[in-house]
Design brief:
Length: about 260
């Protein structure tokens, strides 16, 4: 994982959070700032304001922390659905980004299946092979899954995604209401993929899903595809944290391969 450090402080009289990563890639925090600006422009869920951008640090508005209010989850579900209603003509983003510390290519493409294969699954699979975490035959199996994506995943329009939305990045602010943080992976992609990641490490309660469905009406069978969407994040965790994620990767490959 990255050597990122977080510090609460004041900046020009405002409560702030300073994120520092000595030796960070030159565009690392610029990618997060661009993601935050795009999410803010959607007018859906709250995000922290950028107060200062520098090559190895990012100073953000401190949103505070508190226990969630009773309507936290319904507000989060409704807000995410409103964000997903922001569409684009193409998959990808105006710039590349980062999923955690991992570089994430965001080439603009008309074909969502091609985007998911070439910009998500295949780079991670080949990195795992090069790092000795996957066998060449396993990478070939993922390549076969990529070739079958049009049969496995229905056509969907590109939606505005946070891109790394596990529960830890759905923040509870000082007022007890939700916000999105850590926005370096923002792009336009499949909304179902974002919902899938929310089920990867725990899951929101029913109030979230009910509120989301009232606005967005997701396909009733999207959960059947969730493991395939989450293969990207499992491969990323395999590359970042090691072979503890290998069995989960193989389980998805066995199901969809």
């Amino acid at each position: 994982m990255s050597g990122q450090q977080l510090q609460r402080t004041t900046f020009r009289g405002l409560a702030a959070v300073v994120k520092r990563w000595p030796g960070a890639p030159a565009d690392y925090y610029a990618a997060e700032a661009a993601g935050l600006a795009t999410l803010a422009g959607a007018g859906a869920l709250r995000v922290p304001r950028v107060l200062l951008l520098a090559p190895e640090q990012l100073v953000l508005e401190d949103l505070g922390e508190a226990a969630p209010k009773e309507r936290f989850w319904s507000a989060a579900g409704r807000g995410l659905a409103e964000q997903h209603a922001v569409r684009n003509d193409r998959f990808g983003f105006k710039r590349d980004g980062y999923c955690g510390p991992t570089p994430q290519r965001n080439a603009l493409m008309d074909d969502g299946w091609r985007f998911f294969a070439e910009c998500r699954l295949l780079p991670q699979a080949r990195r795992a092979r090069d790092g000795g975490r996957l066998e060449p035959a396993e990478v070939e199996a993922i390549e076969r899954v990529c070739a079958r994506l049009p049969q496995l995943i229905p056509q969907q329009r590109p939606s505005l995604l946070h891109g790394d939305l596990w529960l830890g990045n759905l923040h509870c602010c000082g007022d007890g209401m939700p916000a999105l943080i850590d926005a370096g992976a923002v792009h336009f992609g499949w909304a179902e993929a974002e919902l899938a990641m929310l089920t990867l490490f725990g899951a929101p309660p029913a109030a979230f899903w009910d509120a989301y469905a009232q606005v967005a009406a997701p396909a009733p069978d999207w959960r059947e595809r969730a493991p395939l969407y989450n293969l990207y994040h499992l491969l990323n965790h395999l590359n970042l944290f090691g072979v503890g994620y290998l069995d989960k990767v193989r389980e998805v490959m066995g199901r969809f391969g």
